[in-house]
Fold this protein.
Amino acid sequence: MREPVRKRTFQYLVLGLGGIGSAAAYWLAQQAGADVLGLEQFPLGHVRGGSQDHTRIIRLSYHNTTYVKLAQAAYQAWTAVEADANELLVYKTGGLDLSPAGSRLPLSDYTNSLTTRNIPYELLDAAEIMHRWPQWRLPDHVTGLFQSEGGLVAAAKSNAAHQRLARAFGATLRDNAPVTAIYPSGNEITVVAGGETYTCEKLVIASGAWTNHLLAHFGSHINLTVTQEQVTYYASPHLADFAPERFPIWIWLDEPCYYGFPAFGEAGPKIAQDVGGQETTAESRTFEIDTAAFQRTDTFLRQHLPTAHGPVITAKTCLYTMPPDRDFVLDTLPGHSNVAIAVGAGHAFKFASLLGKILSQLATTGQSEHDLSLFRFSRPILFTENPVKEFMV
Ligand SMILES: Cc1cc2nc3c(=O)[nH]c(=O)nc-3n(C[C@H](O)[C@H](O)[C@H](O)COP(=O)(O)OP(=O)(O)OC[C@H]3O[C@@H](n4cnc5c(N)ncnc54)[C@H](O)[C@@H]3O)c2cc1C
């Protein structure tokens, strides 16, 4: 049902209501209530972007301390939303990073970052891992990093919570309203969406795979790679062994890089490959399952988690949007300090509420208490011709 929208002038306008934009609307609405408008081109909760499905991994173990520090703040942001929403969104199952000998992603990057931030973790050999989680079949040369705070965020549920709360704080959220034109002029920005014209003082762009479409209205373009990723759920005959209380989220830290979840939202565990998808665009993407990618994850599962394997319950596709260095974009637009932008680089859902909070800070005060130097819009690699792409993080 299209919400009657009388108001045309807002202080803040959020463009895109996926994981990050919905969070930005929530954090902005706490401060500016009815002066916040959120616009989404598809129905809320749609499956065409990067933020749908039941689960996303949340973890403190990252390859550098900037992300570890941000992840610590991300947990706090989720705790605040959970309190407001009066519902659990983060489920701590523990997180297991698995590192085969000679792996492409050095485990020491992760252990060093955690140690620097005084975050406890355990290093386990293959025998100890299989003792604790007999679901695993691992060669001796595999080492595991277990961090107890790791877990999953209930993705679709979190998006709905952010949207519900934003509206409860007074914001207007309009879906099925594609933004087709943006006219920035000094302190006022005019936006045309779904046949209506709005003006705002501050604009937040959180439009995922469509980012360059929106940047075109500012005469700008950045290097972004969009890939069509996929996840598969299996009807394991040993379902109880994959309950969240008995099976931690996991990441196979190598190339190819696989990751997985206990059973949540579907009646079986989930597996996927990080950056296992083909390059595409938001327009030309399909919902077809890539059989070669499916074979890779299926083979890995049969080899290392044989009791998880069973009939496929479902397989789904989804979009990554990645700068060449796979670091976020989180900044205001050069020359347009009243426009804040975020791009999640295919690993941002765990940070979604925090990134929404940071966008609200950039929109309201132009700055944030967090170190955003890694995420600058003006960093050269976003504009370099034929940039070197490093997607393994
Ligand atoms: C398969 C898969 C697994 C992942 N696993 C993890 C994980 O385990 N942990 C983790 O932290 N991250 C993970 N991620 C990454 C994470 O989900 C994304 O980084 C994040 O969800 C991106 O959110 P977003 O809001 O930027 O993008 P989106 O959710 O795509 O939102 C952008 C929104 O903008 C809207 N929009 C665009 N253009 C317009 C317009 N012109 N007018 C109106 N609306 C517009 C779109 O319709 C869309 O709703 C995964 C991603 C995928 C695809």
